[in-house]
Amino acid sequence: MTDTPSPVTASAPAPAAGGNTDLLGLYRTMRRIRSFEERVGELFVRGLSAGSMLHLSIGEESAAAGVASAMRPQDTFTTHHRGHGIFLARGADPARMMAEIAGKETGYCAGKGGSMHIADMALGHLGANAIVGGGIPAVVGAGLAAKRLGTGSVSVAFFGDGAMGQGILYESMNMAALWDLPVMFVCINNQYGMGTRVDQATRNEAFDERARAFGLAAGMVDGEDVEAVAAVAKDLVDGARAGRPAFLAISCYRFFGHARMDKSPYRAEEEELAGRQRDPVKIARAALLERGIAGVSALEAMDAEIATEMDATIDFAAASPAPPLASMFRDVFAVGEPEPEPVRTRLDRVLSKEIR
Ligand SMILES: Cc1ncc(C[n+]2csc(CCOP(=O)(O)OP(=O)(O)O)c2C)c(N)n1
Ligand SMILES: [Mg+2]
User: Fold this and answer.
1) Model confidence, pTM
2) What pLDDT digit, counting tens, does each position of 156-169 carry?
3) Which string of b and e fits 87-96 if b means at least 16 CB within 10 Å?
4) 23-323 — its CATH code?
């Protein structure tokens, strides 16, 4: 395809929460997520990440971009352990995210949350959670608060197919339905819960039927098509805002291992090759070219701009200081809680037999 002039410039604005519903904007959000995740992999290889557990959302970008595009700035959300892309799509600064993943003081949680426990109240991120299903009930509380305070905001829980086997999801869906809360449950079905394929974990993969049984509005969508995700998400998020809680399952494929150390020995190469054909970024790019929305050089320029932005996140993280030891208990306990006594002072006291 030739590089035809485009009515839309490739330098779409940075993804703000609730914006970028057009295909170019959705593509940009997905491209930023993929580039960021690739840099997270690099951070790990360079030995700069704090801890070894890094879960990349490569292949799942349409879920983050599509659902985030249906949300508004005041909306809140929780994520599972694979939530980098969702937070980016909700307007996170990738440099502060990378610093957090590197355990640095400049990170969103001053380096104490890391990849799996990142949170930021200013952007409505109520917290990523390493416990499968652990972030789900918080949105029921947030939804109840929003309803009682009349804020008009929706709270969205993002989780994996593994959480479909957790009882807390069903308790949460029941309460959300019973109280007509502005809440949405989003299952990112990447076909695997660690090494277990979804069809080995459940007899019925029509997850929307389970949600309907509780009285929720529910949908299922193929994550290959980011526009379809955005459209169905908009319907459901709008409904949730009007007091009709919702559920959406998005089907996609986890391109790589569960975490950085996992080489996926439990799945065949042919399956992986076929799964990686379901690439929402490539498919959106092809559609942009096909429809003449953007040309090759415009997209290449956008990709290059994003690559530069994301390269800088590693430099920022590497150059940032580690949190000082004296700050160990800061930001860890609720405001007003007395800080626990440092282990060293306590040990000194015990050893000097001040306490028995
Ligand atoms: C309650 C609980 N059980 C087990 C684990 C170990 N574990 C971590 S991630 C994971 C699989 C999660 O799969 P899924 O929910 O589909 O998310 P994905 O990793 O595919 O994004 C498991 C079993 C855990 N963290 N929490
Ligand atoms: Mg999964």
Assistant:
1) 0.91
2) 999 999 999 999 99
3) bbbbbbbbbb
4) 3.40.50.970
